[in-house]
Amino acid sequence: MSIAVGERMKTYLGERNDSGVSVKILRDAGRQRPLPLYLTKGIPKTVKFGWGSASEEASQLALSLLYDFLGPENRDIALKLHARFRDLMLAPIRVDVWELSENEMRRAVLELMKESEVRIRIERERDKPKE
């Protein structure tokens, strides 16, 4: 899988205030739209976005960010990486307003994919029959 740079760079903007939480996708051209809530089987439709912890809300945000960034054709990768992405990128956020650039997303995804490959290799070696 390659992670290509799009024609227009995206920035994800999260904001938490008295009226709730919102996450938007900002484009270079000044356009913006809400980040869609990507639901999978077993996730209640009442789950909202969150950050600053390893909560269900932060997991939902991680999955939705990865799904948007990677595209629907890479849904399985988003599902595989979202818990570690949450722990690496979202749980440490301690502010009410944050931005995550497309380049930061790319670096995090590549790092997590490398980490996954190493884990898979280690598990295969561990499970290999001893001679």
Keywords for this entry:
131 residues, alpha+beta, four-stranded antiparallel β-sheet, 44% helix
Report what the structure shows.
The structure is a single chain. The chain is an alpha+beta fold and 131 residues long. It has one domain (10-127). 44% of the residues lie in helices and 18% in strands. The protein is built from three helices and four strands, in the order E-E-E-H-H-E-H. It has helices at residues 56-70, 75-90, 102-127, and strands at residues 10-17, 20-27, 32-34, 97-101. It has a four-stranded antiparallel beta sheet with strand order 3-2-1-4. A hairpin with a 2-residue loop joins strand 1 and strand 2 (20-27). Helix 2 crosses helix 3 (102-127). It is globular and about 60 Å long. The termini are far apart. The model has no long low-confidence stretch (mean pLDDT 85).
